[in-house]
Amino acid sequence: MTKTEALWDPDILKVSPDAPARQEKKTITLKRKTGPVVVDVWPARQPSGATPILLIHGWGGSGSYWEDTARRLSQTVQVVVPDLPGTGRSLPVNPPQNMFDQVNTLKLIVETLKLEKVQIIGHSMGAAMTLLLNEQIPDRVERLVLTSMCFFMTEKQAEIYTGIMKVVRLMMRIRFKQMAEIPGLSYMMALRYFYRVPNDPAALRQGFLDYLTLDFETAAACAKNVTDPRIEASGAKVQVPTLLIACRQDQVMPVENVNYSVGVIPNCQLRWMEECGHLPMVEKADEYMGILHDFLHV
Asked: Which of 106, 120, 257, 284 is the 20 to 30 A CA-CA neighbour of 66?
C-alpha cells in the first residue's frame, strides 16, 4: 500500500445534497486525510456506449475551464472532471501534493468510479500527468489526447523553465482573493494564455480566481516536477493511440519542441491549431471539439 492509498478513505463518498433531481452533472467529494477531492461526473445524455472520458486540468487552474468541453462531450459519453488536490474546490490540502501524488489521486478516482476503460484528455501539466497515469493503469486506457504540452529538448530549456518558475513562485507570494475584483486585472493576466482573449469576463475572472486560490506549496511542488525525466520516459512507453494538439501561438510551452515530442511518443498523431494560445478548449471551442470528435470514440 502506498502512502497515498493509506490516506484514502473510500467509505466516504458524498453527492452534493443541494443538486436538483435531474441535473446536468453530479458533484461528488472523495474524502481523504489529506483533504477533499471534488469531482464532477457528467452522465451521457444520449449514451453511445463509448468509453468514459477523464479530463485533467493543468497547473494554475482547476476543472472549471473544462466545463464547456465536458458539457459537449457528455451528449453521448460519460465525462469525469476532477479539481486536483490543492486547486479549485479540492481545498484545503495537507501535506502538499506533488505531481506524482496527483497522479496517484487520479488513479484512485478511476478505480473508485469503477472505470474499467477510460479515454484521457490532459492539458498542459495535466497532459504530463496523463502520460504518468497511463503508465500506472495501461490496461484501462483506450486513447490519450495531450493538449498544449511538449517535452524539453535540452538541459538549457529545463534550466530556463526552472528560472521562470522561481520568479512565478515569488509572485505567488503576493496573492489575495480580492484581486479578482480589480477591474482589468483578470484580462491582463489572460494575455499570456490567449492569442485573442475571449470576451467572457466571468470566465476570465474564474480562471484568475483559480490561480489566486491555489495551494502555494502544492503548486510549487508540481511545478518543480515538470522537468522530471520520468515524464518523457512515460511518453516513450505509450502503447495506445495518442493525439497531441498544439497551438501555434502558445506562449507557455516551446512550440519548437512539438515535433520532437510527437517523435518520442509511439503512434502519436499531431494536430496544429492556428491563431490560438495555450487554452484552445476555451479560445477555439468549436475547432477543438471537432478535433476531439475526429479522434476519440464518442
From this structure: 257
Cβ atoms 192, 67 nearer than 8 A: no
- d(C-alpha 112, C-alpha 106), whole Å: 10
pLDDT tens for residues 44-90? 999 999 999 999 999 999 999 999 999 999 999 999 999 999 999 99
Q: Retrieve residue 57's grid coordinates.
A: 486540468
Say yes or no: domain 3-295 is CATH 1.20.1440.20: no
CA gap 151, 156 in Å, rounded: 13
Give the phi and the psi of residue 166 in degrees, each rounded to 5.
-65, -40
DSSP state of 138: T
For residue 145, give the 3-state DSSP assignment: strand
- Using CA atoms, how far apart are residues 147 and 193, in angstroms rounded to an integer? 13
Residue type, 39: V
